[in-house]
Specification:
This protein has 114 residues and is mainly α. It has one domain. It has 5 helices and no strands. Helix 2 crosses helix 3.
Length: 114
């Protein structure tokens, strides 16, 4: 009886850790996005109220992704559009991931040249 309870306990612990282990890669990108967003809010977009600054913050984070997602229809002050927000975040994540890969490739080339 104790061994069954112990097995169940181990299984629950493993199941609790799986999402954390799977999400590790995106957490680094998400942390960078959060840091960059805070930076944009406190510098370039500090003159705007929080409910009015999303276009400014998104342009600051990635002007290319902003053009792709919001070019035809920028957000109105205080508007929340989850579909466009997801599209923007996806674009920005891809942009960061690609730039990180390119940076890693350049580092490898530099190491190989030395």
């Amino acid at each position: 009886m104790q061994s069954v309870a112990l097995c169940l306990c181990y299984a629950m612990c493993i199941l609790a850790l799986v999402p954390t282990l799977l999400a590790k890669g995106t957490n680094q990108v998400d942390r960078k996005i959060t840091q960059a967003k805070s930076g944009c809010e406190s510098t370039k977009c500090a003159h705007l109220y929080q409910m009015e600054n999303m276009n400014c913050v998104n342009k600051c984070l990635s002007s290319d992704c902003y053009e792709q997602v919001y070019k035809d229809r920028p957000l109105e002050d205080g508007e929340i559009n989850t579909l466009l927000e997801r599209q923007f975040k996806s674009c920005h994540r891809k942009e960061l991931t690609t730039s990180r890969r390119n940076l890693n490739r350049e580092k490898e080339k530099m190491k190989a040249a030395v």
